């Protein structure tokens, strides 16, 4: 039996290197309030929502790099977002794992239903930006999870939409939300996609397959 699930996608826009966590959190809070006011029960924020985790600036100072990693969550700057989620009755749905061990990462993958990373990609030859490959997609697929990825960029070259998951326009919030709802409302189909992706990764990205490709490349 199907059910209606109102979902929203928060398009945060660019986050500058100089933007503080507090200023970004204020933007997240405004979008969360708006989504809740429109009846959304499920809100998706982009991967760079809290900080510019992988800023597009060249940095050589390790101390400067380290400031992009969270040491605790929630921390004083991000706590207002979690408190609002609790006040709106969706606190259990807002989580931020932070740094995890390989064992903990496996648990996170096992617990999730869908892996979504609709990363925006700019194919401008003068200044390309976005996913160069997206190995996290392979990680999720290896754990048997259906994936939602961008229709442009490298992930679109190996994710088979409709078979391993769904490809979407990364700048279209409605399309992203619809893909998530589609898979959440049809768990049997989502499981089939996850199983297909797991089999494909095991076949195409095993160490033996890597050796075959390397040998072929060296012989040509």
Q: What structural class do helix, strand and pairing data support? A: mainly alpha
Fourth-tier CATH superfamily name of the largest domain: Glycogen Phosphorylase B
How would you characterize the largest beta sheet?
Answer: 3 strands, parallel
Which percent bin holds the helix content? 40-55%
Q: Average pLDDT, to the nearest integer?
A: 82
The whole-angstrom Rg is 19 Å
Which strand order do you get reading across the main beta sheet?
Answer: 3-4-5
Topology as H/E string? EHEHHHEHEEHHH
Count the E strands.
5
Note the overall shape: globular
CATH class of the largest domain: Alpha Beta
Question: How would you sum up this structure, described in words?
Answer:
This protein is mainly alpha-helical and 220 residues long. The chain folds into 2 domains: 1-97, no CATH class; 100-220, Glycogen Phosphorylase B (Rossmann fold), CATH 3.40.50. It is built from 8 helices and 5 strands. It has helices at residues 21-37, 62-66, 79-87, 102-111, 135-142, 173-184, 187-204, 207-219; strands spanning 7-9, 42-44, 115-116, 147-150, 165-168. Strands 3-4-5 form a 3-stranded parallel sheet, sandwiched between helices. The chain has a two-stranded parallel sheet with strand order 1-2. Helix 1 links the parallel strand 1 and strand 2. Helix 1 runs parallel beside helix 3 and helix 5 (135-142) packs across helix 7. The longest helix is centred in the C-terminal third of the chain and has 18 residues, at 187-204.
């Amino acid at each position: 039996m199907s059910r209606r699930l109102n979902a929203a996608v928060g398009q945060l826009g660019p986050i500058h290197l100089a933007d503080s966590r507090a200023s970004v959190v204020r933007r997240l809070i405004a979008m969360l309030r708006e989504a809740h006011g429109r009846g959304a029960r499920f809100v998706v924020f982009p991967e760079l929502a809290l900080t510019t985790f992988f800023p597009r600036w060249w940095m050589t100072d390790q101390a400067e790099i380290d400031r992009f990693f969270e040491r605790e969550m929630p921390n004083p700057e991000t706590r207002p977002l979690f408190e609002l989620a609790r006040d709106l009755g969706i606190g259990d749905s807002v989580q931020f794992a932070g740094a995890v061990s390989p064992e903990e990462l496996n648990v996170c993958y096992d617990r999730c239903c869908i892996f979504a990373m609709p990363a925006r990609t700019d194919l401008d030859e003068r200044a390309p930006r976005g996913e160069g490959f997206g190995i996290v997609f392979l990680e999720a697929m290896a754990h048997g999870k259906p994936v939602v990825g961008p229709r442009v960029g490298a992930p679109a070259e190996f994710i088979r939409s409709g078979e391993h998951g769904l490809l979407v326009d990364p700048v279209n919030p409605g399309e992203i939300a619809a893909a998530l709802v589609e898979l959440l409302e049809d768990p049997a189909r989502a499981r089939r996609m996850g199983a297909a992706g797991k089999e494909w990764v095991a076949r195409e990205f095993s160490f033996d397959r890597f050796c075959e490709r390397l040998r072929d490349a060296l012989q040509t």
